[in-house]
Amino acid sequence: MKRVKLLASSKQIQAHLNALCRDIGTRIAATKNEQRAADYVARCMTRIGLSNVTQQRFPFTDWGYDVCELLVHDGQWRAVKCTPVVQSPSTPPKGIEAEVVYVDSGSAADLKGRNVKGRILLIWGAFGETTEKLARLGRCGAAALMWVDTRLPFHWPVAMG
Predict the structure, then answer these.
(1) 135 is in which domain, residue-wise?
(2) 89 or 39: which carries more pLDDT confidence?
(3) Is the model's pTM score more than 0.90?
(4) Assigned domain for 134 exists
(5) Could you tell me the end-to-end alpha-carbon distance of the chain, in angstroms, rounded to an integer?
(6) What is the CATH number of the domain that holds 76?
């Protein structure tokens, strides 16, 4: 087996991860945090002696949100912490109010024979596993889709999409 010489110690790597993930945080395209991360990486590259370090700018489709609120009624109204799925459309100005139906992973088998039209589907598992699954969920007539993403056990927002 060929040995590879490490150019950074585990302590240095941890410092970079802390700077990018903890200090700068979520880095969605076109946000201040994305620019902060790009500047950080450029400084690190220059510091180790790379020449002609540049940042490129280009047009792309942007997405963002101002407010994401989920209120659940179980005898009384209460707020539930949530974030929207990247590229999801806006809800109507008055929001969406409907019965919530749990549909496990949202597979074709999970939906078969279920009356989901006009209801909010609560889905357990990863968002966007396949385009076919997303298309099927989009055609099923549900009023809205909510995912409980079990892949990421983090206590901070994680950009997906």
Answers:
(1) 70-148
(2) 39
(3) no
(4) yes
(5) 38
(6) 3.50.30.30
The reply to whether 14 falls in a domain is no
pLDDT for the residue 145:
94
Instruction: Give the mean pLDDT of 97-110.
Output: 94
Q: Of how many residues is the chain composed?
A: 161
The angle at the Cα of 130, spanning 126 to 136, to the nearest 5 degrees, equals 100
Q: How confident is the model at residue 154 (pLDDT cuts 50, 70, 90)?
A: low
**Residue 155 domain-assigned (yes or no):** no
Q: Are 159 and 111 within 8 A, CB to CB?
A: no
Q: What is the spatial distance between Cα 5 and Cα 1, in angstroms, rounded to a whole number?
A: 13
DSSP code string of the chain: ------SS-HHHHHHHHIIIIIII----TTSHHHHHHHHHHHHHHHHTT--S-------------S---EEEESSSEEEE---PPTTPPPPPTT-----EEE-TT--HHHHTT---TTSEEEEES-TTS-HHHHHHHHHS--SEEEEE--S---SS-----
Total of domains in the chain: 1
Q: Is the pLDDT of residue 72 over 70?
A: yes
pLDDT > 60? residue 100: yes
Residues 6 or more apart from 65 whose CB is under 8 A from it? 84
- Is pLDDT of 127 > 90? no
